[in-house]
Design goal:
75 residues; alpha+beta; 1 helix; extended
């Protein structure tokens, strides 16, 4: 049987989350649709530390990797 689970990327380190790795699923409201339903956005992070303290300092100092602007369009 093949692994049909979709690829999951960690939001902290942007690395793939392996089949046997533990992770945390975060769900955020992406949009409220006209029919009153909600579109959910799922994000994942490793439960174990995946970014070293030195990398965290560099990210904090430069701001890279901290925020990503996403433009959504309706259509």
């Amino acid at each position: 049987m093949s692994d049909t689970r979709p690829l999951r990327l960690c939001e902290r380190c942007f690395g793939a989350i392996g089949r046997d790795e533990q992770y945390l699923r975060l769900a955020h409201i992406g949009a409220a649709l006209p029919d009153g339903s909600i579109q959910w956005l799922d994000m994942f992070v490793h439960t174990a530390e995946c970014v070293s303290p030195a990398q965290r300092r560099d990210l904090h100092r430069t701001g890279s990797g901290r925020q990503r602007a996403v433009r959504r369009t309706t259509g």
